[in-house]
Design a protein that fits this description.
There is one protein chain. By secondary structure, this protein is an alpha/beta fold. It contains 6 helices and 9 strands. The chain has a 7-stranded mixed beta sheet with strand order 3-2-1-4-5-6-7, with helices on one face. A hairpin with a 2-residue loop joins β8 and β9. α1 packs across α6 and α5 packs across α6. The longest helix is centred in the C-terminal third of the chain and has 25 residues. The radius of gyration is 16 Å and the shape is globular. The model has no long low-confidence stretch (mean pLDDT 97). Bound molecules: 5-O-phosphono-beta-D-ribofuranosylamine. The site of 5-O-phosphono-beta-D-ribofuranosylamine has 15 residues, from α1 and α6.
């Protein structure tokens, strides 16, 4: 049984996609131990409660400095003892000590085709604003393992999404979620649950 902790910051549509996939049997042999958010008002926490999943809020604002938050956050996750940590719309930098403790066991969904439109400042709607500003014709989403860098870890899978005439950032974000994020993240979790992924020299291979 793969035990996961899901970290969220916003509306929780990616968390919902994971819960729905579990209910539909598209993810099997997997249990969500808890949902953690840095944002007490996150809609994702409501979604967790509605699904009977324990939820916690750990915010950097509750600690004297970032180091203290990093320690508390890492200790909390270690106490839960998940096999993997899933970042589903989580907007807080993962503490280095957590990356070390969960090496290649933290999975993130990013709303672009990495290495395009990622890194510092590229999150949420901003990604899609930059995509439209640049005038690219194809975007998409990437699910990847997290390393010390920002959106630089080994790529697990990607899915393309076509830009359409008159797209706004909001319309594009929704299409990337529907056509890519909500498919990629559950699939990656089920692949990990069934040992289908292998990492060789920093590249991920699906058996
Ligand atoms: C979305 O833009 C998603 O691409 C990114 O975080 C944002 C919120 O996602 N990963 P969610 O609805 O909270 O899952």
């Amino acid at each position: 049984m793969l035990k996961i902790v899901v970290c969220v910051s916003g509306g929780g549509t990616n968390l919902q996609a994971i819960m729905d996939a579990l209910d539909a049997g598209k993810i099997t042999d997997t249990e969500i131990l808890a949902v953690i958010s840095n944002n007490a008002g996150a809609g994702a926490l409501e979604r967790a409660r509605a699904h009977g999943i324990p939820d916690f809020c750990i915010s950097p604002k509750s600690y004297p400095d970032r180091e203290a938050f990093n320690r508390a956050f890492t200790d909390r996750v270690k106490e839960l003892a998940p096999d993997i940590v899933v970042l589903a719309g989580f907007l807080v930098r993962i503490p280095p000590q957590m990356v070390q403790a969960f090496s290649n066991r933290i999975v993130n969904i990013h709303p672009s085709l990495i290495p395009s439109f990622c890194g510092v400042g590229y999150y949420g709607l901003k990604v899609h604003e930059k995509v439209l500003e640049r005038g690219v014709k194809i975007t998409g989403a990437t699910v990847h393992f997290v390393n010390e860098g920002m959106d630089e870890g080994p790529i697990i899978a990607q899915k393309p999404v076509m830009i359409e005439q008159d797209d706004t950032p909001e319309i594009l974000q929704r299409r990337v979620m529907e056509q890519a994020e909500w498919i990629l993240l559950p699939q990656a979790i089920d692949d990990i649950a069934h040992g289908r992924l292998e990492i060789r020299e920093g590249h991920v291979y699906r058996r």
